[in-house]
Structures are given as C-alpha cells and as structure tokens.
Amino acid sequence: MTARASDRARYDRATAHLDAPLAIVDLDAFDANADDLLRRAGGKPVRVASKSVRCRALLERVLAKEGFAGIMSFTLAESLWLARSGFDDVLLAYPSADRAGFAELTADPKLASAVSVMVDDVAQLDLIDAARGDGREVVRVCLELDTALRLLGGRVRVGARRSPLHSPAEVADLARAVSRRPGFKVVGIMAYEGHIAGVGDSLAGRPLRSRAIRLMQAAARRELVERRAAVVRAVRAVVPDLEYVNGGGTGSVQSTAAEDAVTEIAAGSGLYVPRLFDNYTSFSGRPAALFAQPVVRRPGVGVVTVLGGGYPASGAAGADRLPVPYLPEGLRYDPQEGPGEVQTPLLGSPADDLLIGDKVWFRHAKAGELCERFDSLHLVEGDRVTATVPTYRGEGHTFL
In terms of pTM, does the model score above 0.90? Predict the structure, then answer.
C-alpha cells in the first residue's frame, strides 16, 4: 500500500461516521509542517499568517509552540476580533479603510496595544485621524516596503504591486512623517517578497520555465538583501527603537531568515501545504488540510460524479487555481466540465471501485481559502477525529 493509499484509509476510517462534504486537518502533518517552518527559520521567530489558517483553534495550537510569535492578519475587523479573543500581538498586513474599526482601535487601550496597522502613504494616516472621533490611543504603525525587482530603469517589474515605497529614502521619509504626527508610533517594517516566497520554482514538465524562475528569484534575492538592509538602516536612524523587521513567506523562509536585517519571518501556508506549494526545490511539506466530496452518481464506466467541489482559489485564473482530486489516486477532471459548483464528474479507473456515498478527497489550491467553504474542520490524529473546531466562517465571520 502506498503512503497516499494509507492516508486515504486512515481518513476514511476517521470520518466513517460523518457525511461529506467535510474538511479535515491531519494534525500529525500540521505539527510536522510547523516544526519544519521553525527549522528553516533558524531560530528567528515565525509570525503566523492568519489568512492561511482562518481557524482560531489552530492559530492557538501553532502559537503554543516555542518559536512561533504573533499573528499577521488580513483585515482590521479580523485584527480587532483576534485581539479581543486574547491574541496580544497582531500585525495587520494590509492597509485598511475601515473607519469604524479605526474608531474602535483608537478608543480602546487594549486593542491599541495589541494591534499594529500597515501604512505606506500619508493619506492613510489622514483617514485614521478622521475616523478617531474621541479616540486618543496611539496607533502602532508598520511601514511596508515594495520588494519588487525593477529592471531596465523600472520598465520591467517582477513582483506584486503592493507598497509605493521602494527606496530607503522613501521609507525613511514616511517614518519621519509618522514620527512627527501625534497619535502614531512606528514599530516595524514589513517586506513580503511574494515573487520568491509564493512562486514555485520546480514546475512539473516545464524545465525551462522552472530554470527561468530560479534565475529570476536568485537575482531578486540578491537585490532585495542589499536594499532591505539599507531600508532598515535608514529607518532605524529615524526610529532607533524599531521593534521588528518582518519578511518572507512559506517559500522563502530559510533565505529570508539568513538576512541580518530581518528579525522575524511570516508564514502560514506551510502549515496546511496546499497544492500551490508542491513545486518548490527549497522545501517539501505534508498535505495537512483536505476536503471530501461524496460520490452521488456513476454515469458510466470509469466515471463518478461527486457533489460540488468547484472551489477556485484567488489569483489569476488558471488550472493551478483549482482544487485537485487527491485520493484515491488516479482521478482527474473531465476537461469539458472541470470542477462544478453543484456537481463534478471525475474520470479514471479508480472510479469503478467507488460506490455511492464514498468519499473523494481533494486538495485546495490556496491554504486558508478552504475555510471560506466550510464552517468546521475535523481534526484527525491517526485514524480518529479527535476534535471538531469552527473556522472563521463557523464563528460567523467572513472578513473578506
């Protein structure tokens, strides 16, 4: 029996009493992935990206491990909810225009001390001040650096379009503007190199494309190492008591951690290891989060139909954004239909061994987005479900 077949047998036994659709997290795999992130971080603390987890119980589980420290959140409303729930170090990774949230943040000492907000423009400070009302608490500010690689005088750009702050002078100028402004304090710098951390460099069947990605990433790393260090020096000249410099992601943990200028690493997807993280030479993980759909039809030889399953992930549309049938091995989509909102036909010889009501296990493309489809996660240890915990959705929160 292959390892995957053994996993299928375990998951089927563990959930035999449960009807699909359902989602699970294999805790043995989850914990092993967490340990691997810590190993690759080389002693630097790992801040957990909550958008890749979206389950308070699992955030608590990983933060209980020595070496993980703090949360990187994705909306202000989520940040405030987490802070109210007892998480005391929440870095909001994206700028916000949530005026009601800022009014709440600036009026509550506990929230203001627990949450840092992302800023890359003075206009964002204006919005916060306009939203304060009677709130006078100091807002903790993190400045975001644009990590994109710019070539040919800026005519070629490689990397996500995030912050407008690219040079050390630009980041330092904003640090000065924040420091001069009453009610704000610069506490950190964040720089997420998504073109390195979030792009696989070993694409099956595409050796030339894979080599091109590796060359691009090597050039981007060399440029960013020098520029990030220069940015940190420039900002520390303005803010000597800077608390942290956050960088990296699941796909770049070890290279980012090797930079002296970086004090902590961000990672989250590496806990669940969705299918987008199968194509890396720098690490390998164990798939920990899966979902199951029930077989509801047998249209013919070599075909079964499962209920639902059409859960595309965010990003540029393409086959890599779709979930994949994972267990039993050997199933594939009908190219004329793909995964559907209500039903999904699956082709392949394993279909002939599946009965009505059997489960087909899938892997989602991006980590935490799976939790927007399910209100609970069944936690599997060995061949038993040992707990069932709510996702954000299960607690009544759909932040985006």
Answer: yes
